[in-house]
Amino acid sequence: MKNEVTLIAPCHFGLEAVLKKEVLDLGYEIVQVEDGRVIFRGGPEAICRANIFLRTAERVLIQVGRFRATTFEELFQGTREIAWEEYVPENGKFWVTKAASVKSKLFSPSDIQSIMKKAMVERMKSFYHVSWFQEDGEKYPVRVFLKNDEVVVGLDTTGESLHKRGYRKLTPKAPIAENLAAALIMLTPWHADRILLDPFCGSGTIPIEAALMAAHIAPGMNREFTAEAWSNFLPKKLWYEAGQEAVSLVKDDVETDIQGYDIDPSCIAMARENARLAGVDHLIHFQQREVAKLSHAKKYGFIITNPPYGERLEDKKDLPALYQALGERYQELDAWSMYLITSYEQAERDLGKKADKNRKIYNGMMKTYFYQYMGPKPPKRPRPENG
């Protein structure tokens, strides 16, 4: 394995800055920030650490090639130039699992996939001196992005997307993705010694992600990654060391005030079970409660929530009353902040107050807004006067 690799971490559009900060906090050098992805460099251990520690990324890819192609012949030749033999053993199963094209002459995903596979086979035939590959070994999935005729080829180290932490076995319809929930929390000034309340908690994702952060539990600690099987160039020892680092950072005895409410008792049951599976059930209080009964006696708390958007037409009629109730209850809280993500266009009107800031975030292909109502900061503890 090379001493340094270039890695690509895709994320939700609009959250690149949050992921960039995470990568810098892990100690790696940023190469470039593009729409929906952060590119960085690190040693081989960066593959393991990025998969285990990044909360807001979708996956971690090794950038194995970058070239221009406006014809299928150029795509074939560019793919064949890549040193596939450095990554894929003779019995490895290799294929282009996903091709995405934006503003490029080559736009048919299935054609891009099949031509690149042929080019990979041609390259490896000449290296391994065989005419046919059994492909009965470990998996080496490839992903390719084309934008403005530039082809970026990545080897997918993750497998199932990083938002699948492994704790969410039960969900209602359309739950918020775990990495999006984590990013929303990270866009606020909340930290573990402040109150966090989600009045539409569903299966508990936002409170659980907050509790994982509070307890310094790495999001990828309890799951597996495709690249763990790549012992041909990524030593198992690196995965073990990254896992041990994650274990050493856990602060299980942290004290928190994290609460999740939902009107639906089945959601509360799901949330409790998911929190148990995540190992943070002792850090969260879940309760069946409608938004009209939202209250808290203390000051300086945070509401961070993903309220209903009314995706189905029959639900749209309920939204004004729901957002009005949330707005009224928020006004009654003393010096609180409120952050909510929604695609509902009349959110500010029905909440009864214009947001201090809002940020456009793409939740999949859906354009949503993250409305930010900033409460006052708690007073600093008085410092002793200089005598």
The proportion of strand residues reads: 15-25%
- Determine the CATH topology of the largest domain: Rossmann fold
How much helicity do the residues have?
Answer: 25-40%
Please report the total strand number as a whole number: 14
* Strand ordering within the main sheet: 2-3-1-4-7-6-5
CATH homologous superfamily (4th level) name of the largest domain: Vaccinia Virus protein VP39
The number of helical elements comes to 11
Radius of gyration: 23 Å
Mean pLDDT: 95
Give the CA-based shape. Answer: elongated
Span of the ends, CA to CA: 59 Å
Q: SSE string, helix = H, strand = E?
A: EHEEHEHEHEEHEHHEHEEHHEHEE
Q: What is the class of the largest domain in the CATH system?
A: Alpha Beta
Count of the domains: 2
- Contiguous low-pLDDT stretches (5 residues minimum) are none
Provide the CATH architecture of the largest domain: 3-Layer(aba) Sandwich
Largest sheet: 7 strands, mixed
**Secondary-structure class:** alpha/beta
